[in-house]
Amino acid sequence: MIETGWSSITVVNMVFGLIVLTLGRKLFWLFVGLIGFAVGFHYGAAVWQLHSQLLLFGIATLAGIIGAVLAVFFQKIAVGLAGFAGGGYITLNLINLLGIRLVQLQWLPYLVGGVIGMLMLFFIFDWALIFISSLAGASMITQSLTLSPGLEFGLFLILVICGLVTQTVRYRKSVPSEEKN
After folding, report:
1. pLDDT digits (tens, 9 = 90+) for 81-120
2. How buried is residue 169: exposed, middle or buried, by Cβ count under 10 Å (0-12/13-18/19+)?
């Protein structure tokens, strides 16, 4: 068997990132579930000091399922939680992409980004969802790769633009058909 250096978690995270990047607005419940998974996986180790990949995967899966169920049955709550989790996740990733390493105050930019994300989703839902899911999907993908900081940031920007374009085209196509009904 050829060794590629890619773990199954890396592949899963990249596939989830691609789904969020391109279908975040269209499949809102899945976006919320995948954001719950990403936040649970990436920050579960830091918050609970977990080192077991299997346990982290289990916690992340549980967070994703809870997010998806909330999105289906309690959309207003899910919108707030998804906006908060997505905004915080994106903020911390952008800080890391810029080379800023926060050790003790990681919660503060997460909190600020979370509140901004939550407010965006409440007031301009469709466009904010396209924007946040594009940023979150690009974050999930670039976090999975080991690249130089400049290349990582360039790829992040390209992925965000691709996500914005893809979802905007899908949204624009769906609006006229919804207005007819």
Report:
1. 888 988 998 898 888 888 888 777 778 898 999 999 999 8
2. exposed
